[in-house]
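the two lines:
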Amino acid sequence: MDTALAHSAFPTSPLSLTINGKAHSFDIHPWTTLLDLLRSDDLQLTGTKKGCDHGQCGACTVLIEGERINSCLKLAVTLDGREITTIEGLGAPGNMHPIQTAFVEHDAFQCGYCTPGQICSAVGLVNEGHAHSREEIRELMSGNLCRCGAYTNIADAIEDVLGKQGTHPYREAAE
Amino acid sequence: MFNQSKIVGLPVSRIDGPLKVTGQAKYAAEHFEPGMLFGSIALATIASGRITAIDTKAAERFPGVVKVYTHENRPKLAYRDKKWKDEVAVPGHPFRPLENDRVLFDGQPVAFVVAETPEAARDAAALIRADYATDEPHTDIIAEQHNSYEPPVARMKQFLPPPPRGDAEAAFASAPHKISADYVIEGEHHNPMELFAATVLFEKDGELTIHDKTQGSQNSRDHVCGVFGLDPEKVLVKNSFVGGAFGQGLRPKHHLVLAVMASLDLSRSMKVEMTRREMFYLTWRPSSVQTVSLAADAQGHLLSVMHHAVHATSRYEDYQENVANWTGLAYKCENAKLSYELAKLDMATPGDMRAPGAATGVTALETAMDELAYEVGVDPVDLRVRNFIHRDQNQDKAITSKALHACYREGATRFGWSKRSPAPRSMRDGHDLVGWGMAGGIWEATMAPAEATAQLFADGKVIIAAAASDIGTGTYTILGQLAAEEFDVPIEQVTVNIGESALPKTGVQGGSWTAASTGSAVQKAAKTVIKTLLGHAREMEDSPLAKASEDQVVIAEGRLVLEANHQTGIAIADIMHAAGLSSIEEHAKVAPDMMSMMTFAAYSHSAVFVEVKVDEDLGIVRVTRVVSAIAAGRILNPKTARSQIFGGVVMGLGMALHEEGMIDHRTGRIMNHNLAEYHVPAHADIRDIEVIFVDEDDDKASPIGVKGLGEIGIVGVAAAVSNAIFHATGKRIRTFPITVDKILESETVQ
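prediction for all of em together
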């Protein structure tokens, strides 16, 4: 079969998503990934980064109902009705999420390109509640590469936020 | 010598930080225009040969495709090499995408597809079919080192070895202690997290605004103007945010040429974003083979140093970096012989990657120094201390400053080096063998000509501007700090405009010289504003500053005052009001002090200490501690400075243990062109890293006392790891990266 013909003949599908608290409706091709949809001309949510498109670097990490995922590996049509939070939904320059604030204070980034993915991943990690030590933070953040080598400061930033959460098991484990 | 620091020298958080952590910072591919087109590059699947036929029909028929370019229909571009040579080009013929049927490296562009959507461009590019007449590829540096040659044209004359001094071979032959070994370092790929991309906005009248991933907006602009014969006034290149580069963004990449070509041809705006795979077919750290021979007397004083280095280049250019010369200047030795050659491979031209040359050459030298320490029977730190010299014997010049003793002392103390038991395999932690190793690092402290403007407003607001880039280095912040200090305002009042080709001229951001160069220009521009302000103040009626000279005044709390007596002065707003001005803007230019450069050489130095734990059965290496002690002059911002060193250390750990471009030498193709198979350090690989900045005053390296930090952090790290692995296991591994297979296969020597 002629591939080109298949492409043009392929129907689009309706899709509803809640992105950063706002309802959106789309008609999209089945091959569009969540990452490409977020970074498209339509949404321009370019805080979510493309670093490899293969699920290998974590730069595209976003939260689906609080759970971290690589948006480059999710076809958008499979997410009908779901709630997506991107870096833009976590906070804005005058009103930052505690993890965003901690990243700035601890200089947990340099070029800033992996940073939104690191932060979304860190929020997901906190939600999961599995990180009780610095070692576990490092292990559970290993899906997010940082070529600038900010790992030490990223661990500091996450540890700082976990430590400040009085009810979080991290504090008990640390004490 | 310097103003008492008020904000310079403090650990100020990045002023661009809130934009980066909230996703508001826009990188090259993150600019839009309705109706813009998207480009995708089809890649050669051979390393050497010719395209005999290329079939684009299926791609052209693909829905949404606007045009397909190949060497058969590419618009005519500049003919002469000179037009293609960018600001940091190397000797040879620069690569020209889609120039002809010749294939020079795996992954070379063979076609460029332009379509209405990025997906259509990508999918159509996959339908391009090329037939090739394939030549036998040569990509193995081990085989090709035997066809090496001295570069016929020097990229920079200081990269070429100095003439031999003394008689290194005779001294080596008669010395009581000597070592000589070959060191191999596999090719590395920069892999910044951001993909190379350009957004070309086609404006009315054919003017272009280009968002490019580059370490120099003016270099990209001038390249585009050279290749397309455009007026530099009509091309604006911006690189407000750069998602890492590490040297790969120094020379403009072919995505930029292809994007501009299609934009001009179709009179449309264009976006081209590379894939991760394509990032492996750009500049890379060349694979290298080095021989280092060292000889010493019974006390460890060096009697002879010899270093021969061969590294890869491409068929079409002679890429060069300073690999061997470090061995002639790092330590005191009267007999030195250094040589340096290139070997051509069927690969893309290598390029500068973090501490180009030094990361390679010093890795060999500092591993050899560790071998010599064991041969002589002295502590590795002591061996280095015994051979300390405060002079560059290669150039026979004094050194501006060298607080390396402090690096050894403070680094060793923090690390606990005195508790090291010297014998290999003598330290354990349960099932793990523990190794402690160290190495020295060195990098040149240079500054480049740079210009900047500073503008002070009556209300105390400040705008500074320079074309400089911030590739994650903290440039926005340190320039803001320098201006805030001169004008005595909070940093929030300073707007830093950088990353745009129309701003005052600076060089590309590389070589660790931006802080020294652009920083000095900003400070000079600010001082010039104060001088102009004083001129107006002196003309005021009954001016208390009527007799003040420029070196007597400063700005304090919104007033121009006598430095010796802040009570005497005039409010800035009043001076400007009297002069009928709302602001004062001045331009300044700085350049290296040529007189000083004739007498002095300037380097940053380091000592890095590493602990490894090696699983005795499995050979798995974990780097559990690193202490990096740095002597790099004045530290403008310890927070961003520390991050720079972290970055160097982490990339050095990658060089030591993980990173190598794996080539199938039968086909000449790179096999691991993705981040799952080309391993860069991940969170779990990186334990505690401690950074120490030792005090070092230097009034010659640059006007603001800065030496630069972008490179020094990586230099010596791979050697320190290899030395620690030797200490842990008794296995001396001289091929990098030191992977598990090499540890398991190599023999214990002690």
